[in-house]
Each structure stands twice: as C-alpha cells, then as structure tokens.
Design a protein that fits this description.
Layout lengths: L5 H13 L5 E2 L2 E2 L11 E2 L31 E7 L6 E7 L3 E3 L13 E5 L7 E4 L1 E3 L2 E2 L8 E3 L2 E7 L7 E8 L4 E2 L3 E4 L13 E4 L6 H12 L4 E4 L19 H4 L11 H14 L4 E3 L16 H6 L15 E5 L2 E5 L11 H12 L7 E5 L16 H13 L4 E4 L5 E8 L2 E2 L5 E5 L56 E5 L3 E7 L4 E8 L9 E6 L14
Parallel strand pairs: 3-26, 16-17, 17-18, 20-21, 21-22, 22-25
Antiparallel strand pairs: 1-2, 4-5, 5-12, 6-11, 7-8, 7-13, 9-12, 10-11, 13-14, 13-15, 16-27, 19-20, 23-24, 23-25, 23-26, 27-28, 28-29
C-alpha cells in the first residue's frame, strides 16, 4: 500500500484500541439482541436541553466559498460504487446564480478530471467523467430562480480493496485543480471482511447542533457515512433567503413551497472536510422533494450526489444498492412508487435474490420514513410502504433497518408485522442529526397524543393504509396505551450512531448523544444474526 498520512495511522491505532472493547462499555456489560426482546425503555426528556437548532448564517466561515479561482473545485465528495473496486468523486466549479433573470452555465466549459494514485507524489492515474447543471425555477412573479455551478461526477475503477488513494479533481488544462485529498476503499466482500466503523445520521440540516453532530461523528473516525435523508433543509426558506422552523406555519400563503437553493451550497461546503475523505451514501427524504416549475421534484438531490444506480441495476437515483465488505446495503425510496407492480419493488426483488449470504452475510436496508416509530410525529405515515414491502424484506432476512424522518432516536426489538419476531429486523430511527425543526418529544401511546388515522397519510405519496390494530394488546385501537413491546429504547436527543460489524453474526451498535462527552454512549447493543434459527434460502436467478 502507498504512503499514508500520519493522521491515518493514528486513526487506525485508535480504531484498533476501540475494537478491543468487545463486551463492556462504560464499565458495564453490553447487552445482546439474543438476550431480548428487551423491556421497553423511555428516557425522560431533559427539558433543559433542546439543542442549538439554529441555522448557520450565510456569513459563517464554514459555509462561505473558499475556492480562490472561479473554476477551482469546491464541495468535494467521495461516494461508493456498488463494489469495493470503484468510487465516485464529485465536486462543483463556478458559482451559482440566483435572481429573476439567470442563465444556466454550459457544463462543457470546464473538464471533469480526477488524477489519483496510491502515493501522494505518484498520482499517475487519470479518470474523466461527466458534468451537469440543474435549476430550480418557479412560475410565479417575484420568486427568485436558481441555477447551480457546474457539478462534476467522475467514477474511478480498478481500485484495490481496503487501500488509501490520493486524488486531485478539476480541470488540469486551465489549470484549476483541487488540493490533494485522500480516501480509503472498502474491504473486498467476504464473510470476515468489514469496514471498521460506519456512521449513521439522518435529518442533518445545517444548524449549530448539526456542527456538534458532525464534530462528535468525526471524533469516532468512521470509514463510511450513511445519510438517511433530509440533508440541507433548503426548503425551510423562501427564495429571498427568509427562513423559519416551520415552513407551513410561517409561510402558509405562498403559491408553491419555495426553497432557497444556496443552502445546498452552504451545506456542501460545510460537509467537505468530512466527505472529501470519507465516502457518504445518501438516500432521499421528504425535504429533498423541492417542487418547482412543471411539478418537477428532487432536482438538487438527483444532481448533486453520485449514486451507484446503474452499477446496481437500478434505473433511478431514488433506490440502489452497494456492498461494503461483508455487508449488502439496500437504499430504498420512500418517495417514489413502492407498490408491488412498480419498478422499485421489482428491482428490489431481483437485488435481494442475488445476494449471496456466504459472501455478504449482513443485509442492511435504509429508507427515510420509519415503519416502527412510536412518536406522535409521522406516526404510521409510511404504512403503505410497510404493507407493500415488509414481507419481501422479511423473506430475505434483512438484519437491520435504518430510518430518519422522526427527529428523535428509537431502537426496536426484532419485529415483523407489529409482532415480536426473532427473525425480524431491528429497526433503528435516527432522525436526530440536529436540523432546525427541532426534536420530536411526544409519543403516540401517551394519553391524548394518539393521532386520528385520517391525519397520518403521507401527503406526497398519497394512499391510506393505517387502520386500527386487529390483534395484540392494542387490538381495536390505532395506538397502544403504553410503550409498545416492539419498542426497546427511545429518547429525544440529537446525535449519531456507529455500526461496527465484528464478524458474520455480531455487530456492535452504539448511539452517541450530542450533549454527552466525546466517547460517552447513549445506547449500545450487540445485534446478533442467527442464521441457523432464521435460515434464508437463496433463489435461483436465470
């Protein structure tokens, strides 16, 4: 392997020390899912701590453009392809325009080139990619339109597993190249091959609390970051830059739900110190909808991020899959057709059928709106998605599900169809990244908090599937009258999670709260696969 920075050796040494903590944390034994189902726990709300959910202003140095030349790359991101031997490098050149009269830049104006190699002074390999711009346009007088800088996506191939690479991106013919950055590839797929630490965040935003989340996350030195929807929250703003914690409360009379797209650029600049080194995988949330002219949606999301859609057989940026060592990740779309007759369901069925659990023993699924959240906010909102897809995920033995959307933390017992089931997945809601809308604090099972069924449907997706329970302790009711048995732990605090897969059967899950000291855990558990108890028979694909 080529020369790597001293800081990287420190990180590796740190991770090696941390991974020796196999059975104890904070002096106590770590519980195992095999010991479950666990008795439901609700951590009382700390009323003195509601977080600093105030957006960073546009004059904060962390969100300002620091590129010295017009064509110098900024907002540099690394993301994964579907396998270890390929990654995507993304960046933006030029500057966005906002106003009533704007003109899209020509993407061909500047090249999309990445120079890379295993040594800092030996970046002899070269890859070229494609570029694009997107616009956010409104058909109403007085609203400001937006067009982006030139967005570049370049795919690097032929990479060695678990190896550091240095790279520069830009256009060497101008010349306008970035500083030298580095990333580490994922391990090759195999039953004993896993990334050291995978960070999970959701509903991040760009607040002072977001900065705390990312600071804590970076202190845990992840090898990979999953963002489970809702990144910039640009749609909490009018096009003139006026924002609010609740858009519908403050701006109920606007003819269309506006956005202030420069917040995406601010967010990209803020995230660059992390994601120019550590791959980030994103899936859409409701705050990425961002409707514009001709009812177009998800323009920023689909343009700004690189997705391994084509590599994983998907025709959409809304759902895709990839491997990270012995883990197969399925990233699903909660805001595109998920019905059994639709493209996403048919793709998912084929993707799951191709998974070889002898090569990738762990199967992890993510999407934005949770199926098993007990908070009042968004309660049973994604019930139609659950009805359509849960049987398929259960059939193929999904081990863990990560969601966002609800601005709190909750971990379930293993559950299927609202019943405790040792072969069902553990569902983890981690929509507590720190966004401006603040935390969810009320639970649907508390007196007076159960919403009416008619109020729970997803307004964007439509459909209604949430009815009263027909069996169990909540039979005949829409909500339980106590914390449901399937809910193991819930708490209203901002934070992030770290997943450390140890081997074919054991994964350590740790949730860290922002208000705690660095390294202090909020929730920790071993999630244990039991393939002998819950066998998955592989399908034969022609």
């Amino acid at each position: 392997m080529g020369t790597v920075p001293v800081s990287v050796f420190i990180v590796v040494a740190f991770v090696s020390v941390v991974m020796r903590r196999f059975s104890f944390v904070n002096g106590a034994a770590i519980p195992s899912a095999v010991d479950g189902p666990f008795k439901p726990v609700t951590v009382p709300l700390d009323k003195s701590f509601r977080g600093h959910a105030v957006d960073l202003p546009d004059n904060d140095p962390r969100v300002q453009r620091i590129a010295t030349g017009y064509w110098e790359p900024e907002q540099i991101f690394v993301s994964l392809s579907s396998t270890h031997d390929s990654v995507w490098i993304s960046w933006i050149t030029g500057e966005f325009q906002i106003g009533e009269n704007i003109k899209e830049m020509d993407p061909k104006t500047v090249g999309s080139v990445v120079k890379y190699g295993r040594w800092r002074f030996g970046m002899t390999k070269r890859a070229m990619g494609h570029s694009l711009v997107y616009s956010q346009l409104y058909p109403f007088k007085g609203l400001q339109n937006y067009t982006s800088g030139i967005i570049h996506h370049v795919r690097l191939t032929g990479l060695k597993p678990n190896t550091f690479y240095y790279y520069q991106c830009g256009d060497p013919s101008i010349p306008a190249m970035s500083d030298v950055h580095y990333f580490r590839t994922m391990p090759a797929s195999g039953p004993r091959s896993y990334p050291g630490r995978i960070a999970i965040i959701g509903d991040l935003g760009l607040t002072y609390n977001t900065t705390s989340t990312i600071d804590h996350l970076m202190s845990n030195h992840p090898n990979l970051v999953l963002l489970i929807g809702d990144a910039s929250y640009a749609n909490l703003y009018l096009t003139n830059g006026t924002g609010a914690d609740c858009y519908s409360c403050a701006f109920s009379d606007t003819p269309i739900h506006e956005t202030y797209q420069p917040r995406w650029d601010y967010w990209g600049r803020f995230m660059q110190p992390l994601v120019s080194k550590v791959p980030l995988m994103m899936i859409e949330g409701n705050h990425e909808i961002e409707e514009q002219i001709e009812k177009k949606t998800f323009a920023a999301y689909s343009a700004r991020f690189a997705f391994p859609s084509e590599e994983s057989g998907s025709s959409s940026t809304f759902y895709y899959s990839f491997n990270a060592g012995g883990i197969h990740f399925v990233m699903l779309g909660g805001y595109t057709d998920y019905n059994k007759s639709g493209d996403q369901y048919q793709w998912l069925k084929k993707d799951l059928a191709k998974v070889d659990r002898k090569v990738t023993p762990w199967l992890v699924a993510t999407w934005h709106p949770p199926w098993y959240s007990t908070y009042t906010a968004h309660y049973r909102e994604a019930e139609c998605m659950r009805v359509a897809m849960e049987d398929l995920l259960y059939k193929y033995g999904v081990d863990i599900v990560f969601n966002g959307h609800v601005h709190a933390y909750e971990r379930s017992n293993r559950v299927y169809n609202y019943n405790l089931d040792p072969c069902g997945p553990v569902h983890i809601t981690i929509g507590d990244g720190g966004n401006r809308e603040k935390m969810a604090i009320t639970h649907a099972d508390e007196p007076g908090n159960c919403p009416k069924p008619s109020t729970t449907l997803d307004k964007f997706m439509g459909g209604f599937c949430a009815f009263n329970f027909t069996s169990g302790p909540a039979s005949g009711k829409f909500c339980w009258d106590r914390q449901p048995d399937y809910s193991a732990y819930r708490e209203s605090s901002f934070g992030h999670g770290i997943l450390e897969v140890k081997n074919e059967t054991h994964a350590l899950w740790t949730w860290y709260r922002n208000q705690d000291a660095y390294g202090t855990t909020g929730d920790v558990v071993y999630i244990v696969r039991q393939p002998d108890r819950c066998p998955v028979e592989p399908d034969v694909i022609n």
